[in-house]
């Protein structure tokens, strides 16, 4: 699955943050910014985790939904604490570390030169990949560049080519407010 194939411009914009872990956060509903929960069932979970990671196929079941939501919330809270320049909570740190401890999908180079993963990918493997990305982000030099757009509420790493543009979002919010007034 190509990461953003088949998504409309507004939908695709949610997943151009520069980091998979932050893209996971944007699968959540957000009434303030008009976004709905994307991970409501196994089929949606497999589809959106594929969009976030670029992996396909992903085997998801109903029991996978709660662990994905839990990791997503841990990443969101860790991002907020990173932006506030405070330490990630023990609970969130343990959640990230536990997910990262699972073996991630095994990449391989195919005969045609393309990269692929071996076999069907399961959700715990995907969560490992996402948790490792979050740990690298929040524990590395890019942590100082994690931002939240004041216009649309999306998290991103500054600068993110093709990602959120706070100036553009602020203008869009002003236009929207003036039209509804």
From TrEMBL:
InterPro entries: ABATE, ABATE_dom_sf
Membrane-traversing stretches: none
Domain of life of the source: Bacteria
SUPFAM superfamilies: Jann2411-like
Gene3D superfamilies assigned: Jann2411-like domain
PANTHER family: BLL6575 PROTEIN
Protein name: CGNR zinc finger domain-containing protein
Source organism of the structure: Dactylosporangium maewongense
């Amino acid at each position: 699955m190509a990461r953003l194939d088949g998504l409309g411009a507004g939908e695709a914009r949610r997943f151009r943050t520069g980091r998979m872990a932050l893209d996971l956060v944007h699968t959540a509903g957000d009434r303030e910014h008009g976004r709905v929960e994307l991970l409501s069932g196994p089929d949606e979970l497999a589809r959106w985790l594929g969009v976030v990671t670029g992996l396909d196929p992903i085997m998801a079941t109903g029991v996978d939904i709660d662990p994905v939501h839990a990791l997503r919330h841990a990443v969101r809270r860790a991002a907020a604490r990173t932006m506030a320049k405070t330490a990630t909570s023990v609970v969130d740190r343990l959640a990230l570390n536990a997910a990262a401890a699972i073996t991630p999908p095994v990449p391989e180079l195919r005969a045609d030169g393309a990269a692929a993963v071996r076999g069907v990918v399961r959700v715990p493997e995907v969560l490992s990949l996402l948790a490792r990305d979050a740990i690298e982000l929040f524990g590395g030099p890019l942590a100082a560049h994690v931002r939240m757009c004041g216009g649309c509420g999306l998290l991103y790493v500054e600068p993110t080519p093709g990602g959120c543009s706070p100036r553009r979002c602020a203008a869009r919010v002003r236009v929207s407010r003036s039209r509804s007034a």
